[in-house]
């Protein structure tokens, strides 16, 4: 036996810390992104021409100067689309690639210019002469409601019990309104698509999309060809965060149409300002709530109206606003509840998926309600939270009639309360503020419960393709995409574990529609749940064949065949894995398999508002302490402690990275990241110069992040792990509520501050001034 086989455990199995497979390549710049792919000779570059009106008829689109600009090969408008001029992901046909008769938001694509260089295309795109006839526009949900703009997609109602009666008989009632801002994804790599024409109808598109199968179908639809003519490839994205779930479809389509028209490779990559203006963001919400509760602060009824800025088309606004309602309970039991979504059409870019997918906007409403009750009753909001947690039978049914079977929120919160020394620190904060200085402190401990599964039940399926070559090396492909979250690393660990081979024996390959068909978006945090199971299924099939082969070849019982570290043990004999595979190949064993998985147990009826949309829940809690300068509104996060539940972690170090990153991104959403449109509807925060994401220096001064090591998924997920991508995003709410706590101190904690999100220093200052006034 060779030395490396003497170890009895493999390198990179499941539940071990294994660094991201591309970590070194990321930091050394050797990771290949879409824009790094070598361009074939004659590659052309496309650039979009965008509208400069929020709502107008296009009286004339004069592209003469564009066509004759240096380096320009041609232009594409709606009439150049061979198939259908639409990239609506939901089949509502409300999202043209190029506006035809009217524009419905500032930054809407009207045409594309194709040129020899990107610079030439970009300069030429500015030369269009457009004659508009302005129409009235509504930019935000409230203006849209006033203007009667209507919904972009049917609204949802969740209802249980009798809220009218329960509200009327509740000893106390509070009504409130909360405005929660949107968020730009600010992925480091912007949108990009690179199309290479093939023979006949064929086209291959390299792109930075979270949803290759949808991009494939969209390109086919737009070209008017069957899906089998289109291949989409994704090696990795430089971040997606939901922003590349549907928004890439347009870029893929434009590149593909141009590539087929001129029979040359075509690349399209907007610059940051155009990327931010022309592609969707997180939905901002205006939330009106009412809560009825008893003297102890125990909730008796909740009503909520959730109006969202959806933009000019539906995109994913239906499932996003649905998910907001699904999370308006967070971890709390509402005995009587009525929740309505209002997916408002607005004259802004069509908003889309963003980490949490509407969930954060629901959760923050629940947390505001807890704060309201706490100030009303004059007690610590943590006590109110605990009194309202889901509990045993009778207190365990959600507003969508799913029973919470795995409630570990109370345990997570209790452990964090102890490990963060919450009680003593809260007392210290109150003592500090009692001195009445300029710098005030605040502390808050907030939980999260997040439902895992796509609410579109059919999305919860995945496939994988696994080959073992005759030298024992393994080629792995699955339907998920890598955007930095470490999905490929985790799936490789699952396969390494199945065959008991070192993880570096497994080649992680690009995602391509040619190998695994009809995949779902890598989204809803479900990438490793779904694709991990599919890869395991493929491995199981090959293993079964290998075991049968070994039993026959070595004349033993199948029970005597074991995959041990980098070898196969057959009775008393141990054969190195590669030798074993060679023998299997010589004996004509089929060494390739396609795996498949679909999530069990889930169902959802949107019409009745009842079902079990989620396979399980992921939990977590964060405690944040802030200090606020009450003269300027400036603040900083002094300390954050997190305890987060990822079940039995596939890879603790990667999961911890996800928790840290999500928390910071959630904190950014609620603090510094502010989207601002002027009255004409132009987004004025369209670059990092005006749009402030958290810097490394904004991270909490003390940052203690732990995974709940005891947790195991009670459902049969891949190795009993839980999804991690989105749930910790909502831990950022602890910073928002801590800021609110510091603000409340200026008026002796008598009133719950009116604080909207993002709580920029300006808003914090205004909240302080309102309380003082
Ligand atoms: N982490 C990194 N580094 N980059 C990303 O773009 N996207 C998040 C999350 N974590 C993202 C990320 C979002 S929105 C989702 S839904 C999940 O990763 C998707 O991947 P998963 O399902 O494999 O966790
Ligand atoms: N989450 C994320 N993306 C989605 C979902 C969801 O629930 N449904 C459709 N796309
Ligand atoms: Mo994540 S918003 O589901 O891509």
Keywords, please?
single chain, 773 residues, alpha+beta, 8-stranded mixed sheet, 24% strand, disordered N terminus, binds ligand MTE, binds dioxothiomolybdenum(VI) ion
How would you describe what is shown here?
The chain has 773 residues and is an alpha+beta fold. The chain is 28% helix and 24% strand. The chain is built from 19 helices and 29 strands. Helix 17 (652-670) links the parallel strand 28 (635-644) and strand 29 (702-707). Helix 6 (212-223) packs across helix 7 (248-262), helix 10 crosses helix 11 and helix 18 (733-744) runs parallel beside helix 19. The longest helix is centred in the C-terminal third of the chain and has 27 residues, at 527-553. It is globular, with a radius of gyration of 27 Å. The site of hypoxanthine has 13 residues, from helix 9.
How much of the residues is beta strand, in percent?
A: 15-25%
Tally the beta strands: 29
Biggest β-sheet: strands ordered side by side in the sheet: 3-5-1-12-9-10-11-20
Biggest β-sheet description: 8 strands, mixed
Category from helices, strands and their pairing: alpha+beta
The residue ranges in which pLDDT falls below 50 over 5 or more consecutive positions are 1-5
Small molecules bound in the structure, each named once: ligand MTE, hypoxanthine, dioxothiomolybdenum(VI) ion
* pLDDT averaged residue by residue: 97
What Rg do the Cα atoms give?
27 Å
Assign a percent range to the helix content.
25-40%
Distance between the termini: 80 Å
Shape: globular
List the total number of helices: 19
């Amino acid at each position: 036996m060779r030395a490396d086989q003497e170890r009895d455990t493999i390198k990179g199995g499941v539940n071990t810390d294994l660094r991201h497979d591309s970590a070194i390549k990321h930091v050394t710049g050797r990771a290949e992104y879409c824009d790094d792919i070598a361009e074939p000779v004659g590659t052309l570059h496309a650039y979009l021409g965008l509208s400069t009106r929020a709502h107008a008829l296009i009286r004339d689109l004069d592209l003469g100067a564009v066509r004759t600009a240096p380096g320009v090969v041609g232009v594409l408008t709606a009439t150049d689309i061979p198939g259908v001029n639409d990239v609506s992901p939901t089949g509502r046909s409300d999202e043209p690639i190029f506006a035809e008769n009217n524009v419905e938001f500032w930054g809407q694509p009207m045409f594309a210019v194709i040129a020899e260089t990107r610079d030439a295309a970009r300069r030429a795109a500015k030369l269009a002469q457009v004659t508009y006839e302005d129409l009235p526009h509504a930019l935000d949900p409230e203006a849209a409601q006033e203007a009667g703009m209507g919904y972009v997609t049917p609204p949802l109602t969740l209802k249980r019990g009798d809220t009218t009666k329960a509200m009327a008989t509740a000893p106390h009632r509070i009504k409130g309104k909360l405005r929660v801002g949107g968020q730009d994804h600010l992925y480091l790599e912007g949108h990009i698509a690179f199309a290479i024409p093939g023979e006949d109808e064929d086209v291959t598109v390299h792109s930075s999309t979270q949803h290759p199968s949808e991009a494939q179908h969209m390109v086919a639809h737009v070209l008017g060809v069957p899906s089998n003519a289109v291949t989409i490839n994704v090696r990795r994205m430089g971040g997606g965060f939901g922003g590349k779930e549907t928004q890439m479809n347009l870029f893929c389509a434009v590149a593909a149409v141009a590539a087929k028209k001129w029979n040359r490779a075509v690349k399209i990559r907007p610059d940051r300002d155009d990327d931010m203006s022309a592609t969707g963001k997180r939905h901002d919400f205006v939330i009106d709530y009412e809560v009825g509760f008893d003297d102890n602060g125990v909730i008796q009824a909740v009503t909520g109206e959730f109006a969202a800025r959806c933009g000019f088309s539906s995109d994913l606004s239906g499932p996003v606003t649905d998910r907001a309602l699904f999370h308006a309970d967070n971890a709390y039991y509402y005995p009587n509840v009525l929740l309505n979504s209002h997916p408002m059409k607005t004259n802004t870019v069509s908003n889309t998926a963003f980490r949490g997918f509407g969930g954060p906007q629901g959760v923050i409403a629940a947390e505001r309600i807890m704060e309201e009750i706490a100030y009303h009753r004059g007690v610590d909001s943590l006590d109110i939270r605990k009194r309202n947690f889901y509990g045993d039978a009778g207190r365990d049914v959600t507003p969508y009639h799913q029973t919470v079977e795995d409630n570990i929120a109370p345990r997570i919160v209790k452990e964090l309360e102890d490990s963060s020394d919450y009680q003593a620190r809260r007392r210290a904060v109150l003592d500090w503020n009692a001195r009445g200085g300029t710098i005030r402190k605040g502390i808050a401990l907030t939980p999260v419960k997040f439902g895992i599964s796509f609410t579109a039940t059919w999305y919860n399926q995945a496939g994988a393709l696994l080959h073992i070559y005759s030298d024992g090396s393994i080629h792995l492909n699955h339907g998920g995409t890598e955007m930095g979250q470490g999905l490929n690393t985790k799936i490789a660990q699952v396969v390494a574990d199945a065959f008991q081979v070192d993880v570096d024996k497994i080649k992680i390959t690009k995602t391509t529609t040619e190998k695994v068909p009809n995949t779902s978006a890598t989204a809803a945090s479900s990438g490793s749940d779904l694709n991990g199971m599919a890869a395991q299924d493929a491995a199981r099939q090959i293993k079964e064949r290998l075991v049968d082969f070994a039993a026959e070849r070595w004349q033993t019982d199948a029970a005597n065949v074991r995959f041990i570290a980098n070898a196969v043990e057959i009775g008393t004999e141990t054969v190195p894995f590669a030798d074993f595979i060679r023998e299997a190949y010589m004996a004509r064993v089929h060494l390739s398999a396609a795996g498949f998985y679909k999530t069990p147990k889930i169902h959802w009826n949107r019409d009745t508002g009842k079902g079990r949309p989620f396979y399980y829940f992921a939990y977590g809690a964060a405690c944040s302490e802030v200090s606020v300068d009450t003269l300027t509104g400036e603040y900083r996060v002094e300390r954050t402690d997190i305890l987060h539940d990822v079940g039995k972690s596939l890879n603790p170090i990667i999961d911890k990275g996800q928790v840290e990153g999500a928390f910071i991104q959630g904190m950014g959403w609620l603090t510094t990241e502010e989207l601002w449109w002027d009255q004409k509807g132009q987004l004025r925060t369209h670059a990092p110069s005006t749009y402030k994401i958290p810097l490394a220096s904004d991270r909490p001064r003390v940052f203690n992040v732990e995974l709940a090591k005891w947790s195991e998924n009670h459902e049969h997920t891949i190795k009993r792990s839980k999804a991690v991508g989105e749930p910790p995003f909502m831990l950022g709410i602890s910073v928002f509520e801590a800021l609110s706590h510091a603000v409340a101190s200026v008026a002796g904690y008598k009133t719950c501050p009116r604080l909207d999100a993002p709580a920029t220093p300006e808003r914090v200052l205004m909240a302080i001034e309102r309380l003082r006034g």
